[in-house]
Every structure is written in C-alpha cells, then in structure tokens.
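User: I'm curious whether this sequence folds into something compact or stays loose and floppy. Could you predict its structure so I can see for myself?
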Amino acid sequence: MSITPSRTTRRTGAVRALLTALLTTGLAVAMAPTAGAIPAAQTAQAASAAPAEPRFVVPKLKWKACKGENLRQAECADLIVPRDWGQAGSGTYRIAVARIRAGVAPTRGVMIFNPGGPGGSGLDSLTGGVENRLRGEVADNFDVVTFDPRGVGRSEPVLNACPEPDEPDNATNPLPDTGPVDWSQAVTLMFDATARSNEACLAANAEHANFVGSWQVIRDIDALRRALGTQQISFWGMSYGTQLGRAYAQEFPDRLRALLLDGAIRPDPSIERYTQEHLESDFSAVKTMLGAFDAGTKRDYRKVTTYLEDNVLEIPGGVRVTRWVFANALAGQAAYQSSWDELQDFIRQVAELIGQKGEGAEPERSAQRPHSPRLPGPSRAVGEGQDPLMSFVNCADMHDRPTAAQIATISAEAARIGGTTFGIRPLSEALQCPGLPPLGRALPPLTGTLRLETPPVIVNSIADNKTPWLGARETANAFTGSSMVTYAGTKHVTYGGPSRDCVDAAVTGYLMDLVLPAASVACPLVRPAALERDPVDRGGGRDDEIDEECRDENGDDGNDDDGNDEEDCGDEDGDEEDWWAILFWNDDDDEDWWVWFLIDDDDTSDDGDTSDDDGDTSDDGDTSDDGDTSDDGDTSDDDDDDGDITDDDDTPEAS
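Assistant: Here's the prediction. I'll summarize afterward.
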C-alpha cells in the first residue's frame, strides 16, 4: 500500500485504448511472480530468536544538491547501514536520503515520512507529491526528510527482476470469463503456478532476499535519526508506511515526538488477515463510491455487471472486456477519490457499448472518454520481468502461509457477499508467498497496548479497501490515549487531501503543537470537484429542485447552461465557497433526494495526491494510490497492489 508522486493526468483517446489497458492489467496483481523459496541454510532467524543487535557507528551524512527534476529544492545524501542489523560484519547497504529544510527558525525538528508500498520511493514522492500535501505551516516548520527503503529506487540492494514464468494459460489465468467459478480448482492452479515461479525468482535474488524486510528498515530509520543528530523525530507513515511507524514505535518508543499513521494497517497483520479483509472491503468501497454517483450511473453499473456475468464485451481490434477487468477497474481505484469521475465515465462508456451491441451499432463509434483510470499493477518494474520487492518484504514481515484451500474459501465468500467478480480481489494479498519459508525476521505484532510520550493520531477512511477502517481502529486501540480521525469516504491516505477543514485541521494542530484531536473525530465526505461541476440530471435528476434552490439563494432563474448558477449558489459574499447539489439514490424504495455540500473552489489539495500506492504515496505518494509509486508504490496496492501512495491527482495504493 502506498502513494505516488503527483503527475499530470493525460486525457486519452478512444474507449478501445482504455479497455486495452484494462485487459493487460486485469489479473496482473493476482498472478504477479513472487519471491522464491530460500535455501534453509540461508534462512535468517525468526524474530523470537533474533540475536542482540551489534553496535554500529552511523557515518555522517554528506549533503549535496539532488539530481533530477522531481527533487528540485531538495538536498540528498547517502546513509550507510549494515546489511543485517542482527549480525556484525555482514557488510553494508547504501540508503538514498533526501530532505527539504524548514523555511523558518527555530524549527519543530525533523519529520520523516514513508509513502508505503512496500516498494514506494520516498525520494520520488518528496517534491510535487508529499511536499504539496503538507500544509504550508507544516512544511515551513519541519525539516522534511525521506528515504528510499532497501531495494527501492536509488538505494541498495539492487534486486534482479523475476524471470518470466513459463506456465500454461490455464494455470496463470484459470478464471472463466463467464458462468460459475470453481474457486477451489482455480485458486489451486494459481497457487501452484505461483509457487513454481517463486523458486526462479528467489534463485535470482538469494543474496539479498533475507535483508529487505521491515525489521531491518525500522533500524535504518533510527540510524537516519542518529545521522541527522536529533533525539526525536516526527514520523508520517502512509499506507504500508504505517506498519513501519507502528513497529518503530514498539522498538524505539522514546524517539518519537509525534506519530501520524495515515491509511493504517492493523497492529497484528498476517497474510491471512490481509486476505480476509477483502471479504467485504472492496464491495463496501465500490458501494460507497456508487452512493455518491447519480441514479443513471447506478443503473449503468447494474446493467454492466449483469451483462458481464454471462457475456464478454468484444471490441473491434481484439479487445475483450470481462467481468474481471471491470471489477479490478472499479475496486482497484475506488480508494482514490480523484479517480471517481473517471470511473463514473468508465461505467457509462461500458454500458453504452453494451447498449450499442444490442442495437447492432458499431462500438468503436462510441464517445471517447476523457480519462483513463489507473489499475493495480506491479510494485516496481526492474529489467524485463517482475520486481520481487513487494513480495520479499511482505513475506519477511509476515511468516504465516495460508493454504490454497484457505484462500479459495475466502474468495468464494467474497464472491457470495459482493458478486462473482469480487472473488478475485482477495487473491492480490493471498498469492504472495505460496511455497516460501519465512524470509528474514518477522515484525512482532502489537498485541497489547503501547504508551507513547505523545499518543499517535490514526487517520482512515470509513470505506478504504486498501487499509480497511476496522484494522485502523484496532491500531488506534493499541496505543493508549490515541486519536482516531475518520473520513466518510473511500480515500486511501487522507491527510493533505480534500478534507481541509476537518482531517487536515485535526492533524495539522497535532503535528505543529502536539495538540491531540478528540479521541474520535468524524469528517464528512468532500465530493471530488470534477463530479461537483456536473452535478445535475445524470439520469433523471430533478433539475427543477436545483433551480429552485439557486433562485432562493441568488434570485436568478437558475437555468444557465454552463452550470454557473450551481457554482454561484451560496457564494453571496464572494468568499469563493460554493454549494453544489448532489443526487443520492435510495436502492430500497427508489426515491432519490438532493443533498447540498459546501465545496471550496480554492481547494486544490486533491490535485497533489502515492499510497500504496501507492505513496497506495498509493496514492497516492495512495504515497500512499497510485500513482497509488502510490498509487499510490497505491504502490497493494497492496498491500497497495500498485505500490503507490495514492492516485495521479491525489498525491502519495500499501497495502
């Protein structure tokens, strides 16, 4: 899970191009080659048997101007750390570090962030991503520091790409396009194929696979603290970065000034628990997103899902849209709020193509859609094959290994809850470590309660399917006196996003002055601006009610075609705060109603959002979707499927 650096979203061409992209990534996460079985002689000790850590003198950092457009205004250095913090004389790795100095003096010290993934690059997320998410006063008052974790970006070790697996199609993609699914048979085929590919992947990386897990990384973070010459740090973990923050707090509790866990992973993670979390979280995210759309889009969604259960949508040029492609597009990107308008357009476009097919029309003549939603994908490309970093980290941090039968049971239950297509979603978590023994040293779970000098703040969206809210709530419960800030949407990695007056206000006061928010803060959904600017009559909406509201507010007839009347509603004092009407659909009694939300025209915060994304930081930075890096690194995805913080327009897609 992570977020990705912000980057301009390019509006693309025909629907056929979009669907081609969807098809090529449809099952990439579920069947990505993962780390291979490590020889027993090379398997490091489990955490319970870890030896005492040897003393290591951290060399001084030698700062110089960074190279690269994405690191403008930053300075860079190399941090030298032991290859294995549990074994003296094991050699060293070079860790790439970057920082942007505070704009004022005296400062509030050092803030270190991690955008998630695992596999998200902190350096790639620093400028234009995380820097944009930090409110001005926070950026001005902290030295903002980040790093590329082991095996990521500019840091060592450099991992070799996994060899492309030579597997029959029915092993790597055994899910039928239509009709009933035998989850036991399909998952067994995929499980066995993944286990075979693991062996080849590990053979290419046996030298380093044991030394890239988070047990090592949290010690790298403390070495960075020492090298920076500070007694305490503030730490912002996004998506999978919350696992680093939680584990760092367990190991070094007195070295934290403040701890922000944003898009939080549960305190006792395991591969099986990650998989179980997808039983309802993906369906919940899609339903929450659909709840913000109009009645017409909801009807289109039902039309598409019903059609694809028994049909494949064939597009001229050899493109095939299956139920799996459609499900991954929606569930994979629902957590990135700035993608909602793109996903809404996507639903409509597919519904149009289905309608044209029924009418005998030429599908290629359908309208071009303005955006292409990003899909979950590999954590980080290396060479010709798949990057193993995400699997190596997850399979080191968590040593449990669910069986094919256990995974099949979970997928079948997810399909029962949300519909057939949702059965594929748990596989992105479950099929990471088949056949692998424990790699490196596991992170000890936090099973009791931990007291910090200043309790942490945990932020999570109520319907985030990258890091589900219940797991984040458990993390909040594991810290004495913590505060939980809940955003009423799906957004993955929330601070610095659309909720300026609620989420950001609560967190900024904490970071600046260590003022804890209330134990439980509930923040309402802030609609994505793109949806707000086309809010009426998307499928039978009652324009007369909107017009009447506008007449009541500004005294005009409320009938301008360009939508400026909706834009002006409520902005009588020129403060650039605009009211927008949103149609909600009630599935129970088919009664729709309008709800007004306050939208600040001046709010561009969502444009800078990896993870993990990605930062998934995914986003974005996501750093987090995601993209997802996260994107947001949305970077699992997955955990941030795509290793990014969040999504393209949301700055930082862990888990």
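Summary: Residues 627 and 648 are 5 Å apart (CA to CA). The radius of gyration is 24 Å.
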